[in-house]
Amino acid sequence: MRTAFALVLAIGYPLLALWQIHRRKLRDRLDLVLIVAAGILFLFFARATVDWQAFPPWLWLIGLVLLAVDVVLAGWAWPDLRWTDASRPGRRATSVTIQLAIAAALIAVLF
Q: Is residue 102 part of a domain?
């Protein structure tokens, strides 16, 4: 179960990031950096924790290709974004709090 969850995370998160970048759902460059960095961390976490005797390695490669597409799209979206969007600082604080809570929950479930 833990291995399957890590694989879903490694493939699902890059898909979610791809959707967010493609639809221009990001507020600023800080969001873009956060999404790409989290995708890289989730992918390497799955690579390190998954039992590759039970799952084929090409599943990890799917996540790697999706993350590469995310990075290319992020490069195209970068010039259109500002570093921070200060128009709604409360929304930024709520977003960061939710993301940290989700990361803490995932760490608790996986360990």
A: no
